[in-house]
Amino acid sequence: MPANKRVWKVLLIGYFWKELMTTTSRIGAVTFLLIPWLALSAYAKPKSVRNIDTSRGGLNLHIPDVAWDPEKADFEAGWCGEASIQMALAYYGKKIPQDVIHQAGKPRQADLQDDDMDRALQNTGALFVPYSGKPNDLEGFIAWIQKELRLGHPVICGCKIYPTENPEWDVDHFVVASGYNSKGLLLNTQLDCDGQLLVRYKQLISKKAGYSFRNPRNVFWARAITGIR
């Protein structure tokens, strides 16, 4: 599933450039200071590990984020499902290449989608619990993720990325919830996207630009990985 969040940042740079270049010479001087900062922000290297403040509650499972397989992955489709399963299994000490995970899911398309994920998890030896809560209960969904994290279980979650190229889909992208605190969930979005990122709860329940659990049907997809066999 493609996740091209950085595109809107590049467009934003172009917008600022056009607007600032049409203003006064004084503002034009500011342009030369602002544009490099925006460019660095858009292309800053994503972090695989972030420390979060858990002094007011929460935890961090310290699961390093990974990139899609540079040789085997279909970058047009995105191997977010394959990478998410790889991270969850590695947390339990089981290291499996993404192409093996991909084959285990037996997808009919170039990437693992939600219909393929359970098969890939089962065939790679993962033990997991699916989220089975009620639709439209986003607070309950987030509370369930937090509960599983407290049990020491990483959670693979389906999410939307707004603005979305596929408004009819419930899931644009797979991430691994690897921690949380009083402000938000720590999500491994993959190094091809934004890396490990603390996403605020207000963002996760909204349709603002970025990662969100809100989707057209408000039916939420997640699997808590409880171990391996």
Descriptive report:
This protein has 229 residues and is of the alpha+beta class. The protein folds into 2 domains: 6-43, no CATH class; 58-228, Cathepsin B, Chain A (Alpha-Beta Complex), CATH 3.90.70. It is 36% helix and 20% strand. The chain is built from 7 helices and 8 strands. The chain has helices spanning 6-21, 25-43, 80-91, 98-105, 114-123, 138-150, 201-204, and strands at residues 58-60, 126-130, 155-162, 173-181, 184-188, 196-200, 210-212, 222-228. Strands 1, 2, 3, 4, 5, 6, 7 and 8 form an 8-stranded antiparallel β-sheet that branches. Helix 1 (6-21) runs antiparallel to helix 2 (25-43). The longest helix has 19 residues, at 25-43. The protein is globular, with a radius of gyration of 19 Å. The chain starts with 5 loop residues before the first helix and ends with a strand. Mean pLDDT is 88; it is low at 5-17, 23-27 and 29-42.
